[in-house]
Design brief:
365 residues, alpha+beta
Length: 365
């Protein structure tokens, strides 16, 4: 038990060191990237730093498999150089038993990342998107999906417009049963528009069968209402920005994902991408275990045998290959080429079996 706790402590320290180094690099690179993105907007260094800190958690969350495999390599290389693995084997403990504590630690980390870090990443990603939108357009553009339908908000220097639609087509380019309520910069209502449909074109909404009620003070809205077969309304939204709002599952907490998927389907959108993401998050602890097994299979031998650099390179390359295969399987799942469960769980299961096979071959011949 004491030996397991010792290995677990050493593994946690290795992971923290690797995570700290990568965090510093990510912050530095992302700060330069944010500076480039917002170079044409005068927002100041403090706001750039805020955007960077809000964007970093999502990047680190995606890098968790890399942190795991590098932390495992660091642990077993240190144990091999100090001959602690030799002593451990001399006491009659097999390599598989020595791996028990790192596997348990990474399982705990995987569950924590899925259930706790994931919602934090969702919150920071939403905040980042909101701030970035406001800095670009001078207002806030947002999209949310609820049981009442789709809610959009677009903003510019003249004020805000709230848009509500009962449903949408699959790619969010056309909204149906739409209501526009425009507000001035001081917060007062300016006009209300109801239309059968609204298509988002380049810089404008094209509304069909629209009725417009002016809401200025002193006017009778119904008496001054006008009906239009076709009406153009300026827009700061783009299809890409709407799809980004719907197409980034990481912006939704895993605890709310099932309800969000239901709302997407009711609104007329395809939720397959979100279903794949949900299953891949549930399978993530298993994939992290696979990273530990693969890294250990290449680095648990004593350094006096030589070839340490080659073994480390092989472990990292194999880890990257498995990560690519996992991502590719998810893409196939999102496009409907393979079932959702298969796209999320097949790669982690195969990676675990591969890691176990390499360990058994290395340790037991």
């Amino acid at each position: 038990m004491i030996l397991h706790l010792y290995f677990a402590r050493r593994f946690v320290v290795s992971l923290l060191v690797i995570a700290g180094v990568l965090t510093a690099l990510v912050v530095m690179v992302d700060l330069f990237d944010q500076t480039r993105r917002f170079s044409e907007f005068d927002i100041g260094f403090a706001r750039l730093a805020e955007l960077t800190l809000l964007n970093v958690p999502e990047t680190l969350d995606q890098m968790l498999p890399l942190i795991t495999i590098l932390g495992t390599i660091s642990l077993f290389l240190a144990l091999a150089r100090s001959s602690e693995l030799v002593v451990t084997r001399a006491t009659g403990r097999s390599a598989m038993r020595a791996l028990l504590s790192p596997v348990i630690v990474v399982l705990i980390i995987g569950v924590f990342a899925t259930t706790t870090l994931g919602p934090i990443v969702a919150a920071t990603s939403k905040r980042y998107a909101t701030l970035a939108d406001s800095y670009r357009s001078g207002g806030i553009s947002a999209l949310s999906v609820s049981e009442d339908g789709l809610w959009l908000r677009q903003g510019d220097t003249s004020g805000q417009t709230v848009i509500r639609a009962a449903r949408s087509n699959a790619d969010a380019s056309v909204l149906y049963d739409v209501t526009f309520v425009a507000y001035t910069r001081d917060g007062g209502p300016a006009r209300r528009i109801e239309a059968a449909s609204a298509a988002l074109l380049d810089g404008e909404w094209s509304l069909r069968k629209a009725k417009v009620w002016p809401l200025a003070s002193g006017l009778n809205p119904e008496a001054t209402a006008a009906v239009h077969d076709l009406l153009k309304v300026d827009s700061t939204l783009t299809l890409d920005r709407i799809r980004e709002s719907l197409g980034t599952p990481s912006g939704v907490s895993i605890w709310d994902m099932r309800e969000f998927i239901t709302q997407l389907e009711l609104a007329g959108f395809s939720a397959r991408k979100h279903e794949v993401w949900l299953q891949s998050q549930l399978a993530r602890p298993l994939f992290l275990v696979a990273m530990v097994l693969i890294a250990a299979a290449f680095t648990m031998r004593h350094t006096r045998f030589g070839g340490t650099g080659t073994a480390v390179l092989a472990a990292v390359l194999l880890g990257f290959s498995l990560y690519f295969i996992r991502s590719f399987a998810q893409i196939l799942g999102e496009s409907g080429q393979i079932p959702v469960i298969l796209s999320a769980w097949a790669a982690p299961l195969a990676a675990v079996l591969l890691g176990l096979g390499l360990l058994l071959r290395t340790e037991d011949g």
